[in-house]
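Sequence in, structure out. Go.
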Amino acid sequence: MTSTARIPKDGYALRLRNVSVTLGGVQILSNVTAQPAVGALNAIIGPNGAGKTTLLRAILGLVPYTGTIQIGQTVEGEPLRLGYVPQRLDFDRGMPISVLDFMCAGLQRRPVWLGHSRTARSVAAKYLAQVGGSGWEHKSLGRLSGGELQRVLLAMALSHEPDILLLDEPVSGVDVAGEELFCDLLGSLQQQGRYTMLLVSHDLSIVTQHAQYVICLNQTVQCQGDAVTTLTAENLRALYRQDVSLYEHTGTHEGHAHKHHHGTGGQGHTGHGCPGPHSH
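Output:
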């Protein structure tokens, strides 16, 4: 798997300075300041209503905000490209649309009902292969499992050759096997040291196994830093503002085994010992 992400010129891919978002008269984010680690998987964690999804939407320019969001540049002075994998794709599963139709719709100018261009077909096949979806082109999009659909969404995001990849709880509602496969794919991408990923996740077992940098968010940044030193019992109690029972989980970071504590209290318990699955 070959990364197409480009190295930022000034040592950062993304900078957030005092970012605030108010929607419908309600303040969702307040003075968020963070700088995700370049070429690493950065996890954004926090309780329900913490503003995690809203932060991604602000970075994508989908909601109004105050403060500054700086996208890094390449050595040629071009802005880094953003890719996005949503939590889910809402569509009519009875629609007669194939995986190839879906991929080509975002890869070519002409409508897919007029045919698929040779270039679009080639690019779709390439990135489907990267996510383990070789031969899926003619599958019905509506007949894919939850995990398969998320891998197609990842392939779509990768097909636009992003430098920064935003992932909004991409394995929420996916079965355990699909979740493990998806996270292994992210791990393979991250190990190349090129993509800068921002992963919103409620599953702390995923975070401890795959993330190098963690941003703890509850309307504002409560703490941030490398995963090993940031995911402490004290920080998690402060973040989720509740007493949590704890258990040890052995994860691996850059070839070294570390033990982390995971909160098991909170809303939306999923069986992984992780608080709240949803955010605004």
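Check: The mean pLDDT is 82. The chain is about 25% helix and 25% strand.
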